[in-house]
TrEMBL record:
It comes from Rodentolepis nana. This is Retrotransposon gag protein. Residues 1-20 are annotated as: Disordered.
Amino acid sequence: MSDETGESISQGKSTGLEERELPNIYVETVSLTEGEIPREAIPMTTTSPSPFQYWKEVARYVLYEEIYDDEAEVFNNAQCPTVPYHVLEKLLIILRDGKDFEGKYQHRMLKQE
């Protein structure tokens, strides 16, 4: 369906995306395949070698931003705190729907006083 100017009009509830520009968010994924260890895997020596060891290393990096020190052969301290996935989902909803996040919490603070 279109209006007088010929621009299409979407039916249903507006998401508010037309008025605002969403920020760019970078996400990197690696395919998890059972038994497959990518070429860029960190060489690890363990008492029980496992194809899952690489994915444990990836999880340490993704979850805690720990960077592997090749010289010391250990993971360094975390570079930033962990952000749970459900918090990212809530952020997406706020960005998508344009909800007044600060107003919501200001209202709660006023109720407590």
